[in-house]
Amino acid sequence: MKILLLSRDGHIRTLINKCIADKCIMVSSKDKVINYLEKNSDIDFFIIDEFSFSFEILKLVIFAFPLSKVVLLMNGKFADYRESGRVFFYTKPLEFDKLSFLLNDHINKKLVQSQIYNNDELLVGSSLIMETTRKELLLLSKENCPILLFGESGTGKELAAKTLHKYGIYSHKDAVSINCSLLNTDIADSILFGHKRGSFTGAEEDTMGLIEKANNNTFFLDEIENISINSQSKLLRAIELGEYRKIGDTNLMTSKFRLVSASNKDLDQLVKQKVFRDDFYFRISLIQVRLPSLEEHKEDIDELIFHYYSKKNEKRVFEKDFVKKLKELHWPGNVRQLNSVLEKSRIYSPDSKIQLKI
Questions:
Q1: Given this structure, which CATH class describes domain 116-290?
Q2: Sign of the alpha-carbon torsion through 303, 308, 312, 316
Q3: Under DSSP, is residue 339 helix (H, G, I), strand (E, B) or coil?
Q4: Is the separation of the CB atoms in 209 and 246 below 8 Å?
Q5: pLDDT in tens, 102-130
Q6: DSSP letters spanning 66-81
Q7: Residue/partner pairs of 247-252 with CB below 8 Å, 24 or more apart
Q8: Do 195 and 247 form a contact (C-beta atoms < 8 A)?
Q9: Domain map of the chain by residue range?
Q10: pTM over 0.90
Q11: Contact 183, 296 (CB under 8 A)
C-alpha cells in the first residue's frame, strides 16, 4: 500500500507508519506534491491535513488519479470518519485502531471510480437471456437517447455501458464516466460544470467540468442513485436543453452528450421516498435495460470461467468437479463474486491443478 501524506505534522506520519506495512511519503506543499506525482502514479491513498488543504490539490487527485482514495483530516468537524464516495473525512486527533481499520479494510473493497475508459470487452455468455441482452444493447447503441441500466450489483452494468459506447456514434472517443457518489458532496457542482477562477476560495484557475468534457460524447453516470437532489435539479437542465453555467460564470454554455446511467437500486421507490426527483427520473429512464443476475444464466458459468482465466493467461487444469461445484453455488454477488472466487482459486492453487477456494 502506498500512501502520500500532505501535511507538516510529523506525528501524523508516525501514526500512519504504525498502521501499514509500507512507509508513507510526506510532503509539505502543493509544488512538492506535483513534483512527486510526476514520478509516481501508483498511490493507494492521499491523506491531506486540513491545514495543507487546497481545492486545487483535491481536484488534481480526483481527476488525475481515479483509482486512489482521499482522506481529509479535519479538526473536529465530523464525528469519527465519514465516507463520501472515495473521499473520507476523518476527525483529528487520530486514533490508531480507527485509522488502521480505515486504511487496511477499505483498500481491498471496490474502488469508486471517476474515470475515462476505452475497454473493448462485451458481456460474456451464450445463454438466451444474455444473447437477448447483448442484441438489445447493440440495437440501442445506435440511438442517441438516455438509457438507464439497472440490475443487481455485479451483473455487468459498466460493461453494458461500454458496449453502448463502443458501438455508438461517439465510439471514436473515450467516453466520460463518473461514479455519482462524488456528486453528493460539496464539490459536486464544480465536478459537473467546472468553475471560473476566483469563484470561491481556492479556485485559482478556470476548470473544465465533466459536462464540458462530455460534449459530443457518451456521459456515463454510474450508481446514479447517489446523486444529490441539488445536483439532479441542475443536471436536468443540461440533459434537456444542453445548457449550463460554470460556477462564477454568467455566460451560458452548451454541451450535447449521450447519457447512460446505471443503478442497482429501485429508483421508483426512491422517487416515492422523495430522495429522487420524479422529473429527473423520467428524463434519464426513457429506455431501460435490465442486466440479468447470474442465477438466471448459470449455464454461462463455463464460458465465464474460460473468459476470466484466458485474460490471466492461466493454462492449468481444474480439479475434479471444479465447474460443477461452481454451478451448484448461490451467487448473490453475481459475476463479480464469481470472478473473485476464480481469482482466489488461482492464487491459492500453487500446484499443477486449480482447486476451488471459496
A1: alpha beta
A2: negative
A3: helix
A4: yes
A5: 776 654 443 322 222 233 457 888 888 99
A6: TT-EEEEEESSSSSSE
A7: 247/189, 247/190, 247/193, 247/194, 247/195, 247/196, 247/199, 247/200, 247/203, 248/195, 248/196, 248/197, 248/198, 248/199, 248/200, 248/203, 249/195, 249/196, 249/199
A8: yes
A9: 3-106, 116-290, 294-354
A10: no
A11: no
Q: Residue 45 has which C-alpha cell?
A: 491513498
- Angle at which helices 301-311 and 334-347 cross, to 10°: 50
Q: Which residue has the cell 465536478?
A: 191
Q: How many residues does the chain have?
A: 358
Residue 290 grid cell = 435490465
Is 263 exposed, middle or buried, given 0-12, 13-18 or 19+ CB atoms closer than 10 A? Answer: buried
Task: With a cut of 90, say whether residue 273 has pLDDT above it.
Answer: yes
Give residue-wise pLDDT tens across range 127-183.
889 989 998 998 999 888 999 999 999 999 999 999 999 989 899 999 999 999 888
Let me know if the fold of 3-106 is the same as that of 116-290: yes
Cβ atoms of 171 and 24 within 8 Å: the answer is: no
Among 87-91, 145-149, 164-168, 282-286, the minimum mean pLDDT is found in 87-91
CATH code matching the domain that covers 294-354, chosen among 1.10.8, 2.40.160, 1.10.1740, 1.10.10: 1.10.8
The answer to whether the CB of 19 falls within 8 A of the CB of 25 is no
Question: At CA 349, angle to CA 343 and CA 351, rounded to 5?
Answer: 145
CATH 3.40.50.2300 for domain 3-106, yes or no, is yes
Total Cβ atoms within 10 A of residue 233: 12
